[in-house]
Write a sequence for this structure.
């Protein structure tokens, strides 16, 4: 009955590769998000998306792109991975942008 | 713009000690304020919230009061347990906007 689920939980890959992280929510929420958490636990919003609007944090490199096949899914694609992309990536969802968010358990991405 | 400042951790306490984690914010208008908790290996969970000045959010023995005059939302608990060990995030949200998180404060409770 996981509300927000991410796969994979761990992802180890080499520099230069392209990878995707999947996210699904079964809460019927309209808005989904991707966050990056660095080694010091600092959380940075990367994207906010609903069926009407994508908001991109301007500091996010364009190698990162969200893809939403339907309202319940928001996948994160990353091209040409770099060492600095190593982090834990969290997906979240909320009923609306000003409502509390529900988080997945995170995907730990390690770049070799 | 919006910003949230939390006390730096780690905060190390003995079981049954009193906990305070300070949080102050800068925002336009009248934001809602939140505390989220992240247990090891997990995502963030909403712990409590307050939506207007002088509101007190409470959950699981934790409390925080929305103080507009001091722009603060300090987290308190009267008697912490080992199971409270986690990272705590203060956050704010203006209507229609996304959450702005503080840097997180790690709490370690020793038996």
């Amino acid at each position: 009955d996981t509300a927000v689920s991410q796969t994979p939980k761990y992802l180890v890959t080499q520099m230069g590769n392209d990878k995707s992280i999947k996210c699904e929510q079964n809460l019927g929420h309209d808005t989904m998000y991707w966050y990056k958490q660095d080694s010091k636990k600092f959380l940075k919003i990367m994207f906010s998306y609903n069926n009407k609007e994508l908001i991109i944090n301007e500091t996010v490199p364009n190698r990162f792109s969200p893809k939403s096949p339907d309202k319940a899914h928001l996948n994160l694609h990353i091209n040409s991975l770099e060492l600095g992309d190593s982090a834990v990536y969290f997906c979240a969802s909320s009923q609306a942008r000003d409502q509390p968010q529900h988080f997945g358990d995170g995907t730990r991405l390690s770049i070799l | 713009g919006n910003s949230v400042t939390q006390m730096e951790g780690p905060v190390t306490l003995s079981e049954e000690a009193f906990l305070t984690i300070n949080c102050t914010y800068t925002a336009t208008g009248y934001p809602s304020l939140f505390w989220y908790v992240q247990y090891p290996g997990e995502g963030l969970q909403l712990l409590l919230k307050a939506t207007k000045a002088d509101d007190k959010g409470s959950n699981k023995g934790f409390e925080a009061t929305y103080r507009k005059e001091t722009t603060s939302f300090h987290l308190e608990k009267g008697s912490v347990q080992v199971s409270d060990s986690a990272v705590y995030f203060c956050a704010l949200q203006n209507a229609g906007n996304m959450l702005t998180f503080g840097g997180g404060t790690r709490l370690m409770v020793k038996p």
